[in-house]
Amino acid sequence: MKNSNSNTKLIFLHPYIQKQGSSNRLWLLAFISFFTLAFLATLIYTRDSNSNSTSATTSNTMHTTPLSTNTPLPSAVINTLLHYASKSNDTYHMPHSDLKTISDVLRKCSSPCNFLVFGLTHETLLWKALNNNGKTVFIEENRYYAAYFEEKHPEIDVYDVQYTTKRSEMKELIDSAKEQVNNECRPVQNLLFSECKLGLNDLPNHVYEVDWDVILVDGPRGDWPEAPGRMSAIFTASVLARSKKGGSPKTHVFVHDFSGKVENVCGNEFLCRENLVAATHSLGHYVLEKMDESSVKYCKNSNNHPSGSASSS
């Protein structure tokens, strides 16, 4: 039997060895922590620098090249829009000559230009585009079509109005307006408070407060005796033009389908032949000046009776 004590070996772990291993691990941990913090600091600094640089660049760009809402459409764009609008297959589209006449006036209009249009037509989007720097408002007789159009084209500002006139009553309505020229049917007034049979008094309040530079009468319908006709639209346009408080003293009023009896007769009665600067078979162009509040005549020539279609000038 061997002595177990003779094979027994005692191993002593020196304290220095334990401390040395622990110290190495601490140094390694400290080294990793240092570089981790350095990396995070560098990442944050770089991101902030890039963000500030981008902000500064954007700010400088905004100061050096501001976005302008008053930049007119290039001539090439306008000509292209007119070309395709006039080539439409729509039966009731305007000819190129009429489109260009109205477009030329809008281009010369001081910016921003205030443009009022009676009727939603094939050219509605064109008018909005051509007057892209200004205020364009449309007045439509059909409330359902107005709602549909505005939903489909949210950028279009359209209001519906209820016409109470009939095309067959044109003569009586004109006679009534003449009789009331000193009162309800004055040529200078705020139609919002008027009871004139030919005046539209149920438009939004702000429509009466705008100084309109250009007005186009291309509605409502007037193809049969019971249709509303354009008597009220023409009369209202004449009063709005003469009742301006500011802006340009002149207002361009266009009447489409000028060869029609209602358009021609009411144009001569309320817009006046002396204000007719040009006319074709389909478009009458009047230029009206604002009047004094005490005015009681629509036309300078009180003997200016309705006649046939105006000749081109």
TrEMBL record:
Pfam families: IRX15_IRX15L_GXM
GO cellular component, one term: Golgi membrane
Keywords: Membrane, Transmembrane, Transmembrane helix
NCBIfam families according to UniProt: A_thal_3515
Sequence intervals crossing the membrane: 26-45
Membrane topology per record: Single-pass membrane protein
Any one Gene Ontology BP term: cell wall organization or biogenesis
Protein name in the entry: Polysaccharide biosynthesis domain-containing protein
Subcellular location: Golgi apparatus membrane
Annotated segments matching region Disordered: 50-71
Entries under InterPro entries matching the protein: IRX15/GXM/AGM (IPR006514)
Superkingdom as given in the UniProt entry: Eukaryota
